Amino acid sequence: MCRCWGPYWGWVPCGPTPWLLLSLVCAAPLGMLGEETRQVSMEVISGCPTPQNLLHIRAVGTNSTLHYVWSTLGPPAVVLVATNTTQSVLSVNWSLLLSPDPEGGLMVLPKNSIQFSSALVFTRLLESDSTGVPEGAAQPSGRPYPPYSLAEFSWNNISDSLDRATLSAIFQGHPADDPAGAFANGSLALKVQAFSGSGRPAQPPRLLHTADACQLEVTLAGVSPRGNHSRFGLEVATLGTGPACPTAKELHSIDDEYAPAVFQLDQLLWGSSPSGFMQWRPVAFSQKQRGRDSALSCQASALHPTLAYSLPQSPIVRAFFGSPNNFCAFNLTFGDPTGPGYWDQHYLSWSMLLGVGTPPVDALSPLVLGIMAVALGTPGLVLLGGGLFLLLRHKQYSEYQSIN
Ligand SMILES: *[C@@H]1O[C@H](CO)[C@@H](O)[C@H](O)[C@H]1NC(C)=O
Ligand SMILES: *[C@@H]1O[C@H](CO)[C@@H](O)[C@H](O)[C@H]1NC(C)=O
Ligand SMILES: *[C@@H]1O[C@H](CO)[C@@H](O)[C@H](O)[C@H]1NC(C)=O
Ligand SMILES: *[C@@H]1O[C@H](CO)[C@@H](O)[C@H](O)[C@H]1NC(C)=O
Ligand SMILES: *[C@@H]1O[C@H](CO)[C@@H](O)[C@H](O)[C@H]1NC(C)=O
Ligand SMILES: *[C@@H]1O[C@H](CO)[C@@H](O)[C@H](O)[C@H]1NC(C)=O
Ligand SMILES: *[C@@H]1O[C@H](CO)[C@@H](O)[C@H](O)[C@H]1NC(C)=O
Question: Rounded to the nearest whole angstrom, what is the distance from the C-alpha of residue 87 to the centroid of ligand 5?
Fold first, then answer.
């Protein structure tokens, strides 16, 4: 607490600084109160007669239920469904789901409780050699290698990595056919995590989440790159809203306390509320030890309508939505031609959030608020000090005159 001394006034508080500091610091945690908590269950639904990886996350709130169905049947995909009842259930008809025409094989019942539904499909792992590509060159840049179709990967048994305590599970895969042995010592892993309340993971980029969202962490580790300066990327497809694609939106903040040197938050919004969102910070990491030194940029191409047949098809998406033809796709590319890259440690990780409702947005962190309050307070101090000085001088001057 700062106080100024003046000869005639005794001490006076210095302008608004202490109050500004206090109120701003108090505003931050208050903004995060009142988040809904959810009763989250995670279940692996195994198929008969051929077992398949189908992970059902059911998150029940006071008067709504969210369903996230993740699967590596076909390319890794998730169907997200929000309903306005606590009673909605997932129904799987395996004989339909595994058939060539899977429509109706996946349903959320009762159907009229569905308020929003969409899907994400991770279609391809991209690789390009960025040797000789000037920094900041337009995307896509570098010599592309043939992409790895994620529909042709073989995946581990999700049951082995299911952890109900942390509400997480890991899909780990490698190409079913890998003649060059690039994945001999490596894999692509997709770690899915659900949350029963709001919070923030310990590891950067520390995305703020609510109980309405799931986190996906994509890790490529130990895979032999095909070039000396290979950059990897991910092709992501989603369902459009009518004829239009979801809207991409960038948010900027002066605050980088939770994700060092990253001042941007990228979002994909499916429409007006209640709707879905995908959210990520444009940063990936080239080491397990995530920090400023291992941070890579992450560029997203524009989202544009894409013909369904040009994308690997996801049976769960077709099972739930029929045969949608309003796909939109975009590419994420990780790293710059210069600076740290996958080549350093053969490691890359990137995180995103997928959810329903209003996307969580960071309030300014207490540290930054404190710095701001001090920074804003300093000119106030100077002004007040200057004012006092002038007043005193004036007084002295008039006293001096009166003595004269
Ligand atoms: C995974 O393992 C469990 C038993 O541990 C088994 O019941 C299930 O069918 C397996 N799933 C797959 C996809 O192999
Ligand atoms: C859900 O429940 C809360 C309180 O339990 C209530 O305030 C809110 O209006 C309800 N929402 C809907 C859509 O019914
Ligand atoms: C699954 O779908 C098939 C084909 O439509 C149908 O014959 C069968 O009865 C369904 N099974 C269940 C359990 O609903
Ligand atoms: C859920 O929404 C449907 C229409 O979308 C409505 O008919 C139904 O009454 C709603 N149910 C509840 C419990 O609010
Ligand atoms: C995989 O690891 C083994 C033993 O560590 C090594 O001999 C082999 O060369 C590695 N293969 C590739 C493709 O890196
Ligand atoms: C990688 O670098 C080595 C030595 O610098 C070179 O011989 C080789 O041709 C390069 N490979 C590619 C794919 O550029
Ligand atoms: C993503 O990049 C790959 C390789 O450069 C390209 O074939 C594909 O069309 C791109 N997809 C989108 C949706 O831009």
Answer: 51
pLDDT in tens, 244-262: 899 999 998 877 777 777 8
pTM exceeds cut of 0.70:
yes
- The whole-angstrom separation of Cα 149 and Cα 132 is 26
Ligand sitting nearest the alpha carbon of 84: 4
Condensed to tens digits (0 to 9), the pLDDT of residues 132-143 reads 766 655 555 678
Contacts 24+ apart (CB under 8 A), 259-262: 259/204, 259/205, 259/206, 259/283, 260/204, 260/291, 260/292, 260/295, 261/292, 261/295, 262/205, 262/295
Find out whether 262 and 205 touch, Cβ atoms under 8 Å.
yes
pLDDT value for 292: 87
The most confident of the ranges 1-15, 47-61, 80-94, 250-264 is: 80-94
Give the residue, out of 56, 154, 157, with the most ligand 1 atoms within 8 A of its beta carbon, to mutate for a pocket test: 157
Q: Is the CB of 179 under 6 A from ligand 5?
A: no
Q: Which of 130, 228, 230, 231 has most ligand 6 atoms within 8 Å of CB, for mutation? A: 228
